[in-house]
């Protein structure tokens, strides 16, 4: 199959998308009078459709658009709705709190319960709340510097930890840190950020040996450049090297919460000095958390005592508002249950293995990687770092496949081939997806060979 055939499929699918969705089109045209490109947040344009789907309602694992089309949602708000859309426990807690105050800049009564639940689920004693995972990561980098008195941080090449300026970097020639391309109005100085490839233990050890790195900020499985699994022993060696060189280990579990109750670290015994989790942590309500050890807390108290009076530079007014607290409490105690994670893991494992079989049956050299309820498929062998993973992505082809599936009622995450299974996702929905996916592979397999 040629590039021309791909273009022809794309035209057909774009026409099918547009002609079946007059309401979304009308809403996007009307919204464009006041929102650039008709969307209230510019990422909402990135679905590869001529205009966005406007959402009427989202419930459980399903989404209904403004034209009444129903979709089985495997994107789940790019993780924010990992536990399903509007989980009843969270919706009820929000409804009860909504008439009792939305924001007060004082701790809500739920606060001690939330602290106890966070400690129980994630296994760290000390916690703070922010509005977003971006903000939690930004705070943790500051605190790690305060605790260690060191200026530099280390991240893995092609990581994403939110729009934290100093982590928006890539590795250039000779390992030099460069700003990630495409950033608008950028002024950030990235000279304090060291970048190495994931799974490159010698490079990591050499960087830490310099003794000037406050913390390593890492996802335990890279999930934002496709999916890159840690090689056996890599994370243990990372932990050991951090301890040896006095560097704090910050584990960002925002996406790897999919691993199981308490995230990847809890499931595998990887001990973090700081842990960050956002997106789904409060069932989809804007809220993120960061936790830390007794040792970090003691060192923070000393740093606090030594700092000059003034603004700490951390915190935002609406963080830890009462809605966030009650949503977090409901999520920690009623969504992050062993039973829910078991269901998600089991169904995602079945989905991953069926997708692998579908590739194998057609002789396609594609693979599936999985971390609990989250999976990612892609061309070639499982990548060992972010560069390899990105090199395997064919945006035109994969975008066309996503559109094909969307037109048949299945949503995948834009940008890459991520699928997430929620507690509300059913075996029937997975079976229906696999049938559409099989048709999709029949249509596209001529383009899915070597790049
Ligand atoms: C691992 C990780 N950390 C942090 C963030 C930032 O989350 P938010 O956009 O909610 O601030 C993301 C977003 O995709 C992420 O993938």
Describe the structure.
With 451 residues, this protein is an alpha/beta fold. The protein folds into 2 domains: 3-83 and 338-447, Aspartate Aminotransferase, domain 1 (Alpha-Beta Complex); 88-335, Aspartate Aminotransferase, domain 2, CATH 3.40.640.10. 40% of the residues lie in helices and 16% in strands. The chain is built from 14 helices and 16 strands. The protein has helices at 3-19, 22-31, 88-98, 111-122, 133-148, 201-209, 234-245, 263-268, 294-306, 322-335, 338-361, 386-391, 395-407, 427-444, and strands at 55-59, 62-65, 70-73, 126-130, 152-156, 169-171, 177-179, 193-196, 213-218, 248-252, 274-277, 288-292, 366-371, 374-379, 410-411, 418-420. The protein has a 7-stranded mixed beta sheet, sandwiched between helices. A 4-stranded mixed beta sheet has the order 1-2-3-15. A 3-stranded antiparallel beta sheet has the order 13-14-16, with helices on one face. A hairpin with a 4-residue loop joins strand 2 and strand 3 (70-73). The radius of gyration is 22 Å and the shape is globular. The mean pLDDT is 97. It binds pyridoxal-5'-phosphate. Pyridoxal-5'-phosphate (PLP) is lined by residues 132-134, 137, 160-162, 219, 224, 252, 254-255, 278-279.
């Amino acid at each position: 199959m040629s590039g021309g055939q791909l273009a022809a499929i794309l035209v057909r699918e774009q026409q099918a998308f547009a002609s079946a969705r007059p309401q979304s089109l009308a809403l996007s045209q009307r919204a464009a009078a006041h929102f650039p490109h008709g969307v209230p947040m510019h990422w909402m344009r990135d679905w590869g459709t001529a205009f966005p789907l406007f959402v009427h309602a989202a419930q459980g694992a399903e989404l209904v658009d403004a034209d009444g089309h129903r979709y089985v949602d495997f994107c789940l708000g790019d993780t924010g709705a990992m536990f399903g859309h509007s989980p009843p426990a969270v919706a009820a807690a929000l409804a009860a709190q909504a008439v009792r105050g939305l924001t007060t800049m004082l701790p809500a009564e739920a606060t001690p319960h939330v602290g106890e639940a966070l400690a129980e689920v994630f296994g760290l004693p000390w916690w703070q709340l922010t509005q977003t995972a971006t903000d939690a990561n930004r705070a943790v980098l500051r605190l790690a510097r305060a605790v260690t008195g060191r200026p530099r941080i280390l991240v893995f090449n092609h990581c994403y930890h939110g729009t934290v300026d100093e982590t928006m970097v890539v590795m250039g020639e000779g390992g030099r840190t460069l700003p990630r391309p495409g950033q608008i109005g950028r002024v950030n100085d990235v000279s304090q950020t060291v970048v190495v490839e994931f799974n490159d233990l010698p490079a990591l050890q050499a960087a830490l040996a310099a003794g000037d790195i406050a913390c390593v900020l890492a996802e335990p499985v890279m999930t934002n450049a496709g999916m890159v699994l840690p090689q056996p022993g890599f994370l243990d060696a990372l932990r050991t090297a951090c301890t040896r060189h006095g560097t704090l280990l910050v584990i960002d579990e925002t996406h790897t919460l999919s691993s199981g109750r308490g995230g990847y670290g809890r499931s595998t015994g990887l001990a973090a000095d700081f842990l960050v989790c956002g997106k789904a942590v409060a069932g989809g309500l804007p809220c993120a958390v960061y936790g830390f050890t007794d040792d970090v807390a003691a060192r923070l108290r000393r740093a606090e005592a030594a700092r000059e009076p003034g603004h700490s530079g951390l915190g935002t007014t609406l963080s830890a508002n009462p809605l966030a607290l009650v949503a977090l409490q409901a999520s920690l105690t009623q969504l992050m249950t062993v039973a829910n994670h078991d269901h998600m893991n089991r169904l995602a494992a079945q989905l991953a293995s069926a997708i692998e079989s579908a590739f194998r049956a057609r002789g396609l050299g594609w693979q599936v990687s999985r971390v609990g309820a989250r999976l990612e498929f892609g061309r070639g062998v499982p990548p060992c770092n972010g560069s390899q993973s990105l090199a395997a992505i064919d945006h035109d082809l994969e975008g066309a496949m996503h559109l094909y599936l969307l037109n048949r009622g299945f949503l995948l995450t834009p940008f890459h081939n991520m699928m997430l299974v929620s507690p509300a996702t059913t075996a029937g929905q997975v079976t229906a997806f696999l049938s559409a996916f099989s048709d999709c592979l029949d249509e596209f397999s001529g383009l899915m060979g070597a790049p």
